[in-house]
Design brief:
By secondary structure, this protein is an alpha/beta fold. The protein has helices at residues 9-25, 29-36, 89-105, 126-139, 159-173, 193-211, 228-239, 262-272, 286-290, 329-337, 345-348, 351-365, 371-395, 400-419; strands at residues 40-48, 61-71, 77-84, 112-118, 149-153, 220-224, 243-248, 253-255, 282-284, 296-299, 318-320, 341-343. Among the domains are: 38-176, Leucine Dehydrogenase, chain A, domain 1 (Rossmann fold, 3-Layer(aba) Sandwich); 194-348, NAD(P)-binding Rossmann-like Domain (Rossmann fold, 3-Layer(aba) Sandwich), CATH 3.40.50. The longest helix is centred in the last third of the chain and has 25 residues, at 371-395. The structure holds nicotinamide-adenine-dinucleotide (NAD).
Length: 421
């Protein structure tokens, strides 16, 4: 198997998937170029003395923040903010593009964007994190806007970070809940948004497994990543009767063949900061975890964890991309050739952006919806989108990913043509 270059995997993977769809849509070179290019890429420097609580002493550090606005043909830019030490322009650029295809696939009136700060949030005090977030918003002031660009949570950010964004933006624009999604409910967040991505992953996993004659009841599930998405996916799959046999975080993983108690695991992580040592489990590392014998594997952490080094060793029948771009294109080809069903990220984790859209609508209308209404709409829309992708894949004798990209790119291309981009 050819060697992959870790640092440029995101863009390479994205380009490869896009090429397949471009070919099948028979797009001209000029159209391809336009679809690939970003509307605007912004980089900011954020000086901070991170380890002091009053920010008037200590060692000065300059952090780098990014926002890539990829395409807005179908509506305002939309995409998460990632706080992680490995954040860089190449990664954010690829993730911003993916957001354009994702919003188009689920047919919400948004474009695509992504942003972040190269920082390990676990190394900062809450005060330093708040200051860093607010300074980022000050510097990105002209970039964000309710009808222009709306951020949301991603790796390393959460409702509290969204609340700080809302506060900083509101200082200059008046109280503006619709500027950000994934907020706390007390500040206009939507019922169900926190769990929406994981809930959508679990819903689609159950639906597709049953079509594969793989009963979800007692199915052995392995999940990499136990943050927002990993936890809620595990919680809902366990409620559906699945046996979650292994979980992991950045530090390490845990395994229990009879099934892990997800609420207990969540409680333990909240208390200790990691899964290692969870009572009733044995320790396992992230590499071993991905290669476990199981029915369903759900990568819910970061990019490129399934790659040339381990694609041949994956034993699951169904792999569901809860994370963005967890499978490199070469590994994707290997899994396909081995007959392993892969549910692509732009479909699998779209419950997040779908519910972000519902949150934005509720904010604009100043009329909150009930939890059951949000969940019903989420599952109905995901079910419809899956059916469209499934039918297109069958019709074109292709895989779910290629069909999903075709549907999404077709919509963006049409909107650009109509607007005269
Ligand atoms: P999070 O920060 O809440 O959790 C990330 C988890 O991954 C943590 O458990 C962390 O310890 C673990 N992790 C980090 N590096 C790892 C590594 N090298 N190996 C194994 N585990 C590692 O983030 P999240 O919001 O749950 O996002 C997870 C993935 O889902 C990301 O790819 C994100 O882009 C994608 N996603 C998130 C949302 C959302 O609504 N939060 C929506 C769509 C897609």
């Amino acid at each position: 198997m050819p060697t992959e270059h870790k640092h440029c995997q995101c863009q390479e993977t994205q380009n490869h998937f896009l090429e397949r769809a471009f070919e099948s849509l028979q797009l001209e070179n000029a159209q391809r170029e336009l679809l690939l290019s970003a509307f605007r890429e912004t980089t900011v420097s954020i000086p901070l003395r991170p380890h002091r609580t009053d920010d008037d002493g200590g060692e000065l550090h300059t952090y780098t923040g990014y926002r890539v606005q990829h395409n807005h043909a179908r509506g305002p830019f939309k995409g998460g903010l990632r706080f992680h030490q490995s954040v860089n322009m190449g990664e954010i650029r690829a993730l911003a593009q993916l957001m354009t295809w994702k919003t188009a696939l689920v047919n919400v009136p948004f474009g695509g964007a992504k942003g972040g700060i190269a920082v390990d949030p676990n190394q900062l005090s809450q005060y330093a994190l708040e200051t860093l977030t607010k300074r980022f918003v000050q510097k990105m002031g002209l970039v964000f806007g309710v009808h222009h660009d709306i951020p949301a949570p991603d790796v390393g950010t959460n409702p509290q970070v969204m609340a700080w964004i809302l506060e900083e933006y509101s200082k200059t624009h008046g109280y503006t809940p619709a500027i950000v999604t994934g907020k706390p409910i007390e500040l206009g967040g939507s019922a169900g948004r926190l769990e929406a991505t994981g809930r959508g992953v679990a819903y689609l996993t159950g639906k597709i497994a049953s079509e594969m004659a793989l009963p979800i009841k007692d199915a052995a599930v392995v999940i990499q990543g136990f943050g927002n998405v990993g936890f809620h996916t595990a919680q809902h799959l366990a409620a559906m009767g699945a046996r979650v046999i292994a979980l992991s975080d950045a530090h390490n993983g845990v395994i229990c063949e009879t099934g892990i108690d997800i609420e207990q695991a969540h409680h333990y992580v909240t208390k200790t900061g990691w899964l290692e040592g969870l009572p009733g489990t044995e320790s396992i590392n992230n590499a071993e975890l991905l290669e476990l014998s199981c029915d369903i594997l759900i990568p819910a952490a970061i990019e490129a964890t399934i790659n040339c080094d381990n694609a041949d060793a994956i034993q699951a029948r169904l792999v569901v991309e809860a994370a963005n771009m967890p499978i490199t294109h070469l590994a994707d080809t290997t899994l396909c050739e081995r007959g392993i069903m892969v549910v692509p990220d732009l479909l699998a984790n779209a419950g997040g952006v779908l519910t972000s859209y519902y949150e934005w609508v509720q904010n604009l209308q100043e009329f909150p919806w009930e939890y059951d209404t949000v969940m019903l709409r989420l599952e109905q829309r995901l079910g419809q989108v899956y059916q469209q992708v499934h039918d297109l894949a069958k019709q074109g004798n292709t895989d779910l990913r290629t069909a999903a990209y075709e549907l999404a790119i077709g919509r963006v291309n049409q909107a650009m043509a109509l607007r005269g981009f």
